[in-house]
Amino acid sequence: MNFSVIGFHPGKDELVFEQSISLSVEDLIPIMQWTSSNECIGVDFRLTTTQALEIERLASLAFPQGLDLYLTSSG
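The structure corresponding to this sequence follows.
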């Protein structure tokens, strides 16, 4: 499973940010409060500020400020 964080300006539908992250389902389960590894399939998850900060910390990344951020997965 590959994960990315995507971002939109609030109230807009245009994608303005996308960053692949090198975290596993197991890394993300406690952050996202999933109860199983299947919960990440086929859904984009709106990230809270706390979740975004924790993903930034674990992945050693910095996301742009002021965007609505979502965690998405593929393949």
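The CA atoms of residues 12 and 21 lie 23 Å apart.
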